[in-house]
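Narrative of activities, Objective 1.

The group set out to show that a structural description can be obtained from nothing but a protein's sequence at a throughput compatible with the screening campaign. Below is one input-output pair from the validation batch, recorded exactly as produced.
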Amino acid sequence: MTQAPIADRRPTPRTHHGDTFQDPYEWLREKDAPEVIAHLQAENAHTEEATSHLAGLRETLFQEIKGRVQETDLSVPTRRGDWWYYSRTEEGSQYAIHCRAAASPDDWTPPVLSPGVPVPGETVLLDGNVEAEGHEFFSLGAFDTTDDATRLLWSTDHEGDELYTVRVKDLTTGETLPDEIPNTGGAFFTPDGTAVLYTTRDDAWRPDTLWLHRLGTPVDDDVRLFHEPDEKFWLGAGITRSRRYLVIGVGSSITSEEHLVDLRDGVTSEAKVVWPRKEDVEYSLEHAVVDGEDRLLILHNDDALDFELVSVPADDPRGARRTILPHEPGRRLLGVDAFRDFATVEYRSEGLERVGLLDYSTDAVEDIAFDEPLYSAGVGGNPEWHSPFLRLGYASFVRPGTVYDLDLSTRELVLRKRVPVLGGYDADAYGQERAWATAEDGTRVPISLVWKKEFGAPGDAVRPVHLYGYGSYEHSIDPGFSVARLSELDRGVVFAVAHVRGGGEMGRQWYEDGKLLHKRNTFTDFVACAQHLVSTGVTSPDRLVAEGGSAGGLLMGAVANLAPELFAGVLAAVPFVDALTTILDPSLPLTVIEWDEWGDPLHDREIYAYMKSYSPYENVREGVRYPRILAVTSLNDSRVHYVEPAKWVARLREAGAADVLLKCEMVAGHGGVSGRYNSWRERAFEMAWILDTLGVAD
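Output recorded for this entry:
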């Protein structure tokens, strides 16, 4: 096998707070430089050669994934107005086809659609495969219809940089209108369907401006409705389910502010602040009508760490508050959805997502019960202000994604669809449970375990383990089903998730204890979970592979430095491994926004020193036997640039790491390649490497 690419050392000094770091590989940041492209291509060629012995296994895994998926399939229709909207896939096609069919006025039971059977009265709104023709990458962004169902809006990204071009179609004639809006983020119609509201980004990739485009007019004449000048805040917008208000929200990781436009006064009328922004206070709102009065249901954390729910008059939101759900430590309120006659409350308790129904007349919350010990549940697509059913989504580690409709008159959960798994899948053949590790400061850290029962329960014998982690932004890794994961479980691998601090699994304090000057807890928690799995006989270091992506890739780089002896391999996807360099540079996309999560090392000496103590790139260790490492990235990733793993891999090789690979998609973004077959092949590549590292490759 040829030697791994060795990047030239070209030290570039970086000085802050009296400390100078000589960065030998910063030159790899020049994305358009021919020598950088050549280096990435050499990395890809080396990775392909180094994994060529796994080509057969990759194909086997791809066929296994493909063989379990019902390739020609349909989603459960969702009603909006007089139409049922749904998507379908066809065998051999990469992308979904988005359709609709007419609904009977009083029939709220979605039609039962059968794969391969023509749907009576179907209209194809958008075929993703047609949109993708001639492009190596395709992503569908916005997708919206007017309230009168006569026009369609959609947006596409063909680069992977998350900048979308909006187009509009007249659904009565099938004609695509001349309106075309480039470089957008979110987009949606105004309620009257005569205009499009959309957001754009600044040079730092921050959504900062809301625009109004009137159909049939030049884009250059678009009206700027709202601009957020503070570079620490991003902007989003939407229309309430009641169709009464335009909500413009601005927020950072720790502070938010909502503005309301009463659409009865016109979309260009004044946006009024609900509650002025207050440092470290977040809130969100929903419009409800209670006893004939317009109310705002506001979820907030002002002196309420895990949030509380209050109700205020819509015309005087800073007036008297009525508490509906008081703050309760350990019950993290996540979201509220208001409907004509009730609201839903999503919250997290004891590490699990839960859903309740809020009675407007009594403020009582009725929980919706599910019977598995580990699961995730949430409110699904419910665009209608009034409906006799509530759409819910459900999944567990062993139960495929499920769509329920809750009959609001009987409280019966009506099964609409469970994602089919071909090949005779039996959920009862697999087990799931929660274990607990003890961190170095005594904190109990939950671990989710999934396995196939025929190989015995975890701990009965030493088994290969695939340990996943994330631990940032209060993002929780909730129970979810994976068709691809079955290929590991069926080979005797135990899949595990370390629910480390920095995530949101155990409430808001869990997140607070894994950010800023507490970030190292995220890394040491993961190490404690790995040690627990070894000490309890579930696995051994030579049979343990760790995986994480994005901020979870930072976790991977950190634990590889902290405890390389604990792992046989580390898979780092789009990894944030050059964290300090990125967070020091406010000219880079999203950097200033990120200061609330990581701290501001540019202006704070303590934060600088703390980040430098854990940032993986700066802390690669000489003379250490690193585990096998596979880093996966994308050239057009606008969130975690390709240069971070490229530099990290170069530094690891310089330090003597023997088996380090970099795979860079040359046409893709943060989410990797596009198209379901391409995604399956990409996952088969990664899984083949994992299985080979675990010693269970075919």
